[in-house]
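Example 4.3 (complexes with small molecules)
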Amino acid sequence: MKENLLEIVSQFVDDKEIPVIKPLGKGHINDSYRVVTAAKEYVLQRINHHIFRNVEQLQQNIFRVTNHIRKKLEGKGVADIDRRVLTLVPTLDGALCHRDSNGNYWRLMDFISDSSSYDEINPQLAFRAGQAFGEFQQMLADLPGEPLYETIPNFHNMETRLQTFHESVKTNKAGRLDGVAGLVKEIEARAEEMCKAERMHREGILPKRTNHCDTKVNNILFDRNDEVLCVVDLDTVMPGYVLSDFGDFIRTGANTGAEDDRNLENVSVDLAIFEGYARGYLQNAASFLTDVEIDNLAFGAKLLTYMQTVRFLSDYLDGDTYYKIASPDHNLVRTKAQFKLLQSLEEHYDEMQRIVREAAGR
Ligand code: GN1
Ligand code: MG
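Answer. The structure with GN1 bound is encoded below.
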């Protein structure tokens, strides 16, 4: 594998010294490595092309998004821009990614030095993360040209996610259905409510904007003083509802337990973190969001947690073909933990609504 990686890196950088290459990060989809050369550090990633079916389009999206953000930061006179936005490194031939002889796709980016990401945060960091994702959406609001490609079609569309789930239940490919009948019932009981964003969009009252679509808490890099540097993992930046981005942060950042906690007693919503994030986010975003969007942010937290429950359970029923797993029951453990979080969000829904309204000043 090592030789192979060296060969890949040499497609991008012409450095005679042999780089050091180490695994990096916790993504469920791509494989990431840290590459240290004599001159510079990079992040090398193998892009999962079974999931991202058009890698060229995906890379074009990232190229446009990062260039646009860079211009915005320059316009604001921001210092240290190379640590404030991702920088793609093209191949020596000038392409945005490299396809190896096995058909795998690779990209290289500058490594952002002196940065860290967190799986667990406090309300103050949540506030800063909220500001950062609000600013991210704001900076991309006037992205010129065609809309971005949908790198995964219907990615956060609950109606199509449920269709896929129904297929998985019907096919019962891995023979695991009997063991999860209770969870299937819980999912069905909420299906109608959870499709309301799609209905509102069809009615013309819920717009799509340029979203990040993977606002996990660990997709924000902080510097040594815990100030936000930059938003990373731009594979899924595409049109979507702002409630999705709000909700996915709460799902990951405001969970008192882990996404795959085996101890369900650890799992619940941390309302102080919810409030920190809502305040930070709305400080930037309240100026451009409609009342309907604001009214549905707390719903977004429920929706994205429900969606993740459905996605993990679908993958469990399919026999674990999508997410990387660390144990045979990993997707089931994840499903149960996400469902427990959903129940906690349901319990505290009125409080979350009140917090959002106050933070928005409406
Ligand atoms: C995947 O690979 P990662 O961790 O960035 C997934 C997200 C899920 C997340 C669940 C392309 O993200 O949508 O919310 O796992 N990304 C894709 O933790 O499916
Ligand atoms: Mg991702």
